[in-house]
Specification:
Helices cover 49% and strands 15% of the residues. By secondary structure, the chain is α/β, with parallel strands linked by helices. It folds into three domains: 50 residues; 133 residues, 3-Layer(aba) Sandwich (Rossmann fold); 156 residues, 3-Layer(aba) Sandwich (Rossmann fold). The longest helix is centred in the last third of the chain and has 27 residues. The protein is globular, with a radius of gyration of 21 Å. The model has no long low-confidence stretch (mean pLDDT 96). The structure holds NADPH dihydro-nicotinamide-adenine-dinucleotide phosphate. NADPH dihydro-nicotinamide-adenine-dinucleotide phosphate (NDP) binds next to helix 9 and strand 7.
Length: 448
């Protein structure tokens, strides 16, 4: 927790107002803890009510989405878009379709996105949106009708210089395609309003790989800087086998690491021979819940239906890539007990505050998601540039730019950590302060 009276007051006020928004308060608390080192040294922050403004979204749009299912029944879902901060560029952030979507989760994601986008050094503000619509078990036609209805409201709030959505949990190239198609019919223009589009619709090569690959590039920098080491021979566990997890696992293997366990909502697979990532990717084309099918192909692997069992598998490196708050204190204790010495977040806020504190107390190198998973939005930024200039870059070109961006993000976090804490490896503080500074300076320049 923070010590500055200013931050204590801002947070107390916020917690009173939003006591029913635990994820949002968690993200703000984690962030403000790092600002303790700045606010008392720089009176302009308090004088301009910078923190008070940064913790309130600029705008929130809430709406109803009605659609007709395959049986002809009318269904109603709730949706929202949180446009959190546009100080450094048009709003940018994913769309999530999941039954857990609510205001707290949308606000925490949009808040985090603001500083993540700032870390990439690309001109993008922070936003997030979504709906409690669950695509699992829905037909393609149902998903299309839902996406079209969603855009019938959303189209008026987005645009290439206003707000540029992308995918997230439950939203991949298929859903983006349906949304972009509807948007284009309404606006009658082929613009870069969405990223993570299919390649033929103006998407960028390398976007599908970007978050997972970027995570591994970030970890490579950590290994090099703090351990003079590489992924070679390291035991790695990856939670989540979706867009982020599967690509992270693929890159770990390419860089010489051994992925010994993966998970999805159906459970955990522990395979001492090394996870067969080609099989995971193949199964994921037609199914969700793929872990419970893995053993059919690899009977020697061990399956558990309990997703938390992944944190019991001995490893050097853990990459949580599924969802928020998947590592609680007990799982952090298991990880440390079983030899884990590096954790890098592929998902957004997968580690609770208590678990993060435990890792730091036990000298586990820790990469916060707003830095280590920024590769996805970074390549979305590159997609926007390609769309705006009518160019298509090769996979290698995009991947090389991603690699350089992840190195730059690591260096910014590392330098800010050294400067403000005297420690080279406090990447949480480093990421928060480096992300904050650019947004803060822009807000000062733009007045109240
Ligand atoms: P996907 O929907 O593609 O994949 C999510 C994966 O996690 C699926 O395998 C899902 O299983 C699994 N999962 C969900 N909940 C649990 C759980 N409680 N325990 C174990 N596994 C679980 O989403 P993404 O890969 O896109 O996103 C994952 C995380 O990364 C999210 O936090 C997202 O915000 C973050 N992120 C994503 C970016 C991107 O570019 N996509 C960019 C930056 C961050 P199943 O399929 O069986 O439901």
């Amino acid at each position: 927790m923070f010590k500055s009276a200013y931050l204590i007051n801002v947070y107390a006020d916020l917690s009173k107002r939003y006591q029913d928004q635990p994820e949002f308060l968690q993200a703000v608390e984690e962030f403000l803890t790092s600002l303790d080192l700045l606010v008392d040294k720089d009176p302009r922050i308090q004088k301009n009510a910078i923190v008070e403004r940064m913790v309130e979204p600029e705008r929130m749009i809430k709406f109803r989405v009605s659609w007709v299912d395959d049986s002809g029944n009318v269904q109603v879902n709730r949706a929202m878009r949180v446009q959190f901060n546009s100080a450094i560029g048009p709003y940018k952030g994913g769309i999530r379709f999941h039954k857990s979507v609510n205001e707290s989760i949308m606000k925490f994601l949009a808040f985090e996105q603001t500083f993540k986008n700032s870390l990439t050094c690309l001109p993008m503000g922070g936003a997030k949106g979504g709906s409690d619509f669950d695509p699992a078990g829905k037909s393609d036609n149902e998903i299309m009708r839902f996406c079209q209805s969603y855009i019938l409201e959303m189209y008026r709030h987005i645009g290439p210089r206003m707000d540029v959505p992308a995918g997230d949990l439950g939203v991949g190239a298929k859903e983006i395609g349906y949304m972009y198609g509807m948007y284009k019919r309404i606006e009658n223009e082929f613009s870069g309003t969405f990223t993570s589009k299919g390649i033929e619709s103006g998407g960028s090569l390398g976007r599908a790989e970007a978050t997972g690959y970027g995570l591994c590039y970030f970890v490579e920098e950590m290994l090099k800087t703090y351990k003079k080491d590489t992924f070679k021979g390291k035991r790695v566990i990856v939670s989540g086998a979706g867009k982020v997890g599967s690509m992270a696992a693929e890159k770990v293997i390419e860089l010489g690491g051994k992925v010994v366990a993966m998970s999805d909502i159906s459970g955990v697979i522990h395979d001492e021979n090394g996870i067969d990532i080609k099989l995971i990717k193949k199964l994921s084309q037609t199914n969700t819940e793929i872990m419970n099918q893995y053993q059919t192909y690899h009977p020697e692997a061990i399956y558990s239906p309990n997703t938390k069992d992944i944190w019991k598998v001995p490893c050097d490196i853990a990459l949580p890539c599924a969802t928020q708050n998947e590592i609680y204190l007990e799982s952090a204790e298991e990880l440390v007990k079983n030899g884990c010495w590096l954790v890098a977040e592929g998902a957004n806020m997968p580690t609770t505050i208590e678990a993060t504190k435990y890792f730091r107390e036990h000298n586990v190198l820790f990469a916060p998601g707003k830095a280590s998973n920024a590769g996805g939005v970074a390549v979305s930024g590159l997609e926007m540039t390609q769309n705006a200039t009518f160019q298509n870059w090769s996979f290698e070109e995009v991947d090389e730019k991603l690699h350089q961006i992840m190195k730059r993000i690591f260096n910014r976090c590392h330098e800010a950590s050294l400067k403000h804490t005297g420690r080279p490896d406090d990447l949480i503080t480093g990421a928060n302060i480096a992300g904050f500074m650019k947004v803060y300076e822009a807000m000062l320049q733009q007045g109240v």
